[in-house]
Design goal:
globular
Length: 794
């Protein structure tokens, strides 16, 4: 665990605690049996946006615990429990606590996808798998694509979750191309985040291993084959260092780790004769899926032999059978048989495919051949998208030829109906994705068509257009909504940026990086943004304008990472470019940016000179927002220089200037800087309303950077008020939130928390450790609520 430096030494040293003590989790919540598991309830929890902490409360409600007992188990106040219960009642439309108790069987499953159909057969294999998981540290499901590995993993994980006090967590690796994202995505599914400052795979693996050292949980790694080496390394470390962690993985290739228990997922059971076809798993699956589409088919009587032939020809592969069943919408069972026989005869000679890959490829080939020419073209082009994407994105990228929105939706509908595209509707808008094996096939077709380069460029351009439209809204009134929208598109934005970098498209890479940096800052992964920024800045042949945009973004990320020297270096280079530019607005912005690392890096006079020069330019331009920002910046830098009276005058002036302007981001910062200055001057009563106003604005947007600094201020206020226990809880919460973001400005631009050593001595090591742990285990919402109300720690 990376500790937050609040004084000249780490918190762990000041308080004489060890790292394990601070990372100890709350009393674990046992998970109930999953025999009565309702996937409808899983879907309802996902759609209702139930948080990790709300799931814990939901399960304990199922144990018929009182609010006081729940608070005791989770180290939170009764008031906070009441707030969670009210939120659950509202989100789930429940009438009482008894209604909420019905959800206990699914409340502790984290990150699991919601199956839309029941699992057919596999009873004997599931029993074997359950025994293997409970007796082995690592079980790997291998087998061909489409054999049902993921579905079996979900089923067996939910059935053994009761045996793990911290439940089961699911990680879908199929949408991850960067090994660095494996650990952070796993942490996100656990409801926490890794330190944004971790820049190497080894550092991130070390963080997640440290985090999970005292977990008792089953981790499901799904679709690992394209990240076999990094996932294998992480699994090995988890098994060695986390005695309570067991792993269930699915991959087309086993890891080859010591002690690995490999379970090859076989095809579904095929009938040996017409007499036993009613019980054969493959036929039961085909019949059930077909009934959902056409109730007039007689797959037990007249069409029974055709059903057997289809299942046998498809080798009992679940995905292949499901794709075949969909074709019954417009074909008879006998026609399906004829199509399958012809197609497989054409595909038996593919040397580059293993037999299991050839079987699945033949199935998708056959489905592809049943598409119209227009559907085939769109299907291949959609292979350029990663994960979920919107209809607007698909239309913008893929509709090269002219066509009406109705025609496009008709083509999309055809792909959905033929099970080559999945759809999810949330917030009245539809989003789409392909299964990974289907997407890989589509991208192969895109290469064959000669359009892969064209679609990659159009996809990257869409990413730029989206990010440039979204970026200004990240500092506006509705920034929380736009931050969520940005997050939904991040897999494709990452893919677009990676393509631009690898293909030396300097202009496109610079434009996309410049538009993405604020997302990395606000969402909390500073390290990813800085790593990508370094790659962009190394690209040769970048025009000055594009380089200046990249430098500005890199400077912002370095600033929020607390690296003043790096921030100053890139901002100064951007300023040099701006001085050779004829655009005064560009120069003013460059001067404004360059002022801050100088102001907080010991070069205050230069910072104030830059701000005065920028302000003069903005006044000539009549830019009221620019003028207000320079007044605020002057006050902030003066505060860093301990020119307190001058700082107060400027900050109060800036606050008045921001209030009528449409910039919530700067209004929040004006409140925060003025509040922190008043706190420093000992004027606590005047400071508090400004800090509360700033924190509300940052919290409403989910802006981690401002939240971190405000919690630091409230901790200092508690010390100044003589409330040592409240202060220590807030310090624990502050450390936890900073760790997840990589935002190091607490130590870089804030004065030390004064009196920290004194209160640790006053409380003693045992109570200090207890209070720190209580704060460290708080969710962000709980920490903010605790900071701003008068409740006291237990």
């Amino acid at each position: 665990m990376r500790y937050l430096y609040l004084a000249s030494t780490p918190v762990s040293s000041v308080l004489n605690t060890d790292s394990h003590a601070l990372r100890t989790r709350k009393n674990s919540v046992a998970i109930p049996p999953s025999d009565a598991l309702s996937f409808n309830q899983m879907d309802q929890l996902e759609r209702a946006g139930i948080t990790v902490r709300e799931r814990e409360v939901l399960f304990l409600l199922g144990q018929r615990l009182t609010n006081a007992e729940i608070g005791e188990r989770l180290f939170i106040s009764v008031r906070t429990v009441e707030s969670h219960v009210s939120s659950l009642l509202r989100k789930l439309g429940a009438d009482s606590r008894l209604d909420l108790a019905e959800y206990k069987a699914v409340a502790a499953l984290r990150g699991f996808p919601v199956p839309t159909t029941r699992l057919i057969g596999r009873e004997s294999q599931l029993k074997v798998l359950r025994d293997q998981i409970l007796s082995s540290r690592l079980v790997t499901l291998t087998g061909s694509g489409g054999s049902g590995k993921t579905r079996m993993a979900i089923a067996v994980a939910t059935s053994v979750a009761e045996d793990f006090s911290d439940g089961a967590v699911f990680l879908d690796c199929s949408a991850l191309s960067d090994p660095l994202l494996v650990a952070s995505t796993l942490a996100g599914n656990l409801g926490v985040q890794l330190g944004g400052g971790s820049t190497t795979l080894e550092e991130r693996d070390s963080e997640i291993v440290a985090l999970m050292s005292d977990y008792e949980t089953l981790v499901v790694f799904d679709n690992c084959e394209h990240l076999l080496e990094p996932v294998s390394h992480l699994i090995s470390r988890l098994i060695q260092a986390c005695p309570g962690v067991r792993v269930l993985a699915t991959s087309r290739e086993a890891f080859g780790l010591p002690g690995e228990n490999i379970h090859v997922v076989p095809p579904l059971q095929l009938p040996q004769s017409l007499a036993d076809s009613e019980r054969a798993e493959a036929v039961v699956l085909f019949r059930e899926r077909a009934k959902a589409l056409r109730s007039d088919l007689d797959l037990v009587g007249a069409d029974a032999e055709a059903a057997i032939s289809i299942c046998t020809t498809l080798d009992g592969l679940p995905l292949a059978i499901e794709l075949a069943a969909v074709q019954l919408v417009h074909l008879t069972p006998a026609e399906v048989v004829r199509h399958l026989n012809n197609r497989f005869n054409l595909l038996t000679g593919r040397r580059s495919d293993t037999p299991r890959q050839a079987t699945l490829k033949a199935t998708i080939d056959w489905s592809y051949d049943l598409l119209t020419d227009e559907e085939q073209t769109l299907f291949a082009r959609l292979g350029i998208f990663v994960g979920w994407f919107s209809g607007q994105a698909a239309s913008s990228v893929c509709m090269v030829e002219s066509g009406t929105p109705l025609e496009f939706q008709s083509l999309i509908g055809g792909l959905i109906w033929k099970s080559l595209l999945s759809v999810s509707t949330f917030d009245s808008s539809s989003r789409y994705r392909m299964l990974e094996s289907v997407r890989a096939y589509a991208e192969e077709k895109l290469y064959e068509s000669g359009e892969h380069g064209l679609m990659s460029r159009r996809h990257c351009q869409w990413c730029i257009d989206f990010a440039e439209d979204a970026a200004p809204n990240l500092i506006g009134e509705d920034r929380a909504t736009w931050l969520r929208k940005f997050h939904e598109e991040i897999p494709n934005l990452r893919s677009g940026l990676a393509w631009a970098i690898s293909n030396n498209e300097a202009d496109m890479a610079a434009a996309l990086f410049a538009a993405m940096w604020r997302y990395w800052h606000m969402h909390g992964d500073i390290a990813e943004g800085r790593r990508r920024g370094a790659e962009v800045l190394e690209m040769p042949g970048m025009p000055d304008g594009a380089r200046a945009r990249s430098l500005e973004a890199a400077g912002g990320l370095a600033w929020w990472g607390g690296d003043m020297d790096a921030s100053s270096t890139v901002y100064e280079e951007a300023l040099l470019i701006a001085r050779s530019n004829d655009d005064p607005a560009v120069l003013a912005n460059a001067l404004y940016n360059a002022a801050f690392p100088n102001g907080y890096g010991g070069r205050g006079e230069l910072a104030l000179a830059y701000l005065e020069e920028a302000r003069a330019i903005y006044e000539n331009l009549g830019d009221e927002l620019g003028i207000a920002k320079c007044v605020w910046g002057w006050g902030a830098c003066a505060q860093a220089m301990e020119m307190n009276e001058e700082a107060r005058s400027k900050l109060e002036q800036a606050l008045q200037m921001f209030e009528p302007l449409d910039d919530v981001f700067m209004l929040a910062w004006a409140h925060r800087m003025l509040g922190s200055l008043l706190l420093r001057l000992g004027q606590l009563a005047e400071a508090k309303p400004h800090l509360e106003a700033g924190l509300r604005l940052f919290d409403s947007a989910g802006d981690i950077s401002g939240i971190v600094l405000h919690l630091r201020d409230f901790a200092q206020m508690a010390i100044d008020q003589g409330d040592s226990r409240r202060a220590m809880v807030l310090i624990g919460a502050l450390g936890a939130i900073q760790e997840t973001s990589g935002i190091d400005l607490v130590q870089a631009i804030s004065q030390e928390i004064k009196g920290l050593e004194g209160i640790s001595e006053e409380l003693g090591p045992i109570e200090t450790e207890t209070l720190l742990r209580q704060g460290h285990e708080m969710t962000r919402d709980e920490a903010i609520g605790f900071a701003t109300d008068q409740g006291r720690p237990r």
